[in-house]
Amino acid sequence: MAIRRILTIDNAADLAVLKQVSTPVEGPITDEVRTLMDDMLETMYDAPGIGLAAVQIGDTRRVIVMDLGDKDGVACDDDPAEMSDEDRAEWEAERRNPRYFVNPEILWTSEETLPYEEGCLSIPDYFDAVERPARARIRYLNYQGETVEEECEGLYAVCIQHEMDHLNGVLFIDHLSRLKRDRAVAKVKKNARLAA
Question: pTM for the complete prediction?
């Protein structure tokens, strides 16, 4: 597995790629596609984030990885904030629940919406509330190439819709007012200059 560079909106070349509509993965899921997903997951964990679309690392195929840290049956008697770094890292690793989506489709969304404060690895250090459908029905190919159809809600629904937007060349700030979008871009560009 390899950690890849995440494209950000602070330069025109990256933004041009991020605004592209991704193309479907043709044929069966190959080892090359699985390697892409493994690299994406490693990149997402390193960032750290909870979701990543292939376009965010410059690959314009319809592939998403996600991990909401919601593995069933992993309890914690201690407050994670009070754990040592080593214990917290071990606990977080136990909670990992990686999900892989190839050629995902949203089949249905609820009329009920859910406002959620979103962030994005391609728009570092900027967060804002976006209102999205609270539930969705999705279909995709998993890591093994099997077709899965399921309903999702809450954070899962928010995250899959956010990542699906990436596959369609849409950033979460595109759902905001022009003023907020301009502020987000200015903040990311300023932070990039300061970091250079």
Answer: 0.88
**Rounded CA gap, 127 and 187, in Å?**
11
What CA dihedral angle connects 6, 9, 11 and 16, to 10 degrees? 90
Q: Distance between CA 99 and CA 84 in Å, rounded?
A: 27
Residues carrying an active site annotation: 163
Average pLDDT of the chain to the nearest whole number: 91
Beta bridge partners of 109: 136
Identify the pLDDT of residue 78.
59
- Concatenating the DSSP letter of every residue in 54-118 gives GGGGT--BSEEEE--S--TT---SS-GGGS-HHHHHHHHHHH---EEEEEEEEEEE-SSEEEEEE
Q: In degrees rounded to 5, what are phi and psi of residue 51?
A: -155, 150
